[in-house]
Batch of 2 targets.
Target 1
Amino acid sequence: MAILLTGAAGFIGFHVAQVLLARGDEVIGLDNLNDYYDPALKRARLAQLQGHNGFRFCEVDIAEPEDVKAAVGKADVRRIVHLAAQAGVRYSLINPYAYIRANMMGHTAMLELARHLPNCEHFVYASSSSVYGGNTKLPFAVEDRVDSPVSLYAATKKADELISYAYTHLFGFPQTGLRFFTVYGPWGRPDMALYIFTRAIIEGRRIQVFNHGDMQRDFTYIDDIVDGVIRVLDNPPPPDESGRPYRLYNIGNNKPEPLLRLIEVLETAIGRKADKELLPMQPGDVPVTYADISAISHDLGFNPVTPIEVGIPRFVDWYRRYHKV
């Protein structure tokens, strides 16, 4: 039995693959290794995985259904962890078609694959805290309305949730969507604030701090995120009151941190003060994210344990080793 993992060369996918392989699972990893950020980092992650006997990698664009089917071949895939997506809020203002292709066509192609498997036990997929858009009620709960997205990225992720629900209704296979909240840690994405800030501070350059620093994020360390993903994967949802085996969870730290506090912790870890340029809010951004994780905690015992005072120094240590600085 194999687990199909999309986005295997991505930040979260790489870490999920490591845990699955360490416990003896067979993993088929898919990724198109696109150049949204430096593919060298994606290849370096893959190099960490390819020494495992249980890992097989295919360079595949998930928006090409026939290529996906060919990559899977005759493998006995029963569970899918679908993490591949076009990420980033700001890039969606520049290249909207990339989001429609990867996040909607790609998501639908994976669902089509799942519904034709002989025995799809569970389809776990990545949504995003961005679906909460301009919500002002805190913390964000999965029961909240999410029909006011403030970015195209958020709109595509909400569309994925709706498409997945329809597939479970029509075809009956179990699905769980995960709304991730600001994931960070070693091997993280270079387009995210922590990576950008770390590079700039080490290189002695100014950092851009939006909304004049009046921002809060539910920063969630990668090890905690992976623990939640694995707990979800191993526990397909029972039918709900309508008989559909479908659920959504927030997966975050349940503790929003002020952006300026993140910068303070980062300065301490690096040993250098940041030169900050305070700027207005950017289009598509939101001032606060805050995850209500009561559902996943109650159902699966999810309990994030890594504060930024621990996680950020771990990231900085990795950054210095990887970049040799």
Target 2
Amino acid sequence: MSLKNQSEQVNWRDGGTPVSSLFDDPYFSPTDGLAETRHVFLDGNGLPGRFGDGFRIAELGFGTGLNLLATLIAWRRAGTEGRLSYTSFEAFPMPAADMDRALAAFPELRAEAEPLLTAWADGKRRFAIGSVDVAVIVGDARVTLPDWSHRADAWFLDGFSPAKNPELWSEDLMAEVARHSAPGGTFATYTAAGFVRRGLQTAGFQVERTKGYGHKRHMSRGVLDGAR
């Protein structure tokens, strides 16, 4: 699929699960999207145990903002002093009304969601929520990530299914993920697709296939090989 001249439209499955019209894939698990986020992206990256002042998270696929909000709660509960940086690369930003509707499925996130929803509706893509500095970089990550001037301590790889959105899982892009990772940087993703794991290994990550969330048997996580 070409990533040019596309705009996201959200369909709703069973009245409550947001599904991308471009990729025909749900934004989060219909079973419990928040639990999935915590299992895959937080636990998969060893968070919140690794948090510290200046910790930097980067993400492929901002979607509903669910991963950001789960991270924000984990950061606050950990009582970490200082600031956290959260950068997400998103080609097709979700309309504000759809984001509001999607996040309404998680009442425990409402207090954290309000500042996100306000900023999003105002068209802001760089903003702060408490001590978390957020930047959503809009555009094709194959173009925007190479120009990013930072390196992440942890990556959330959360594009749509590799079978439906292969552009976001290419070997070249995984090499950019590695190039933009700090020493000892980690990644976690819900997918265990072979070509994704091989691409990450080629890029320099030590890759582990581990237990997935819910009905998914496996997911992937890894750490950047210090010898690279």
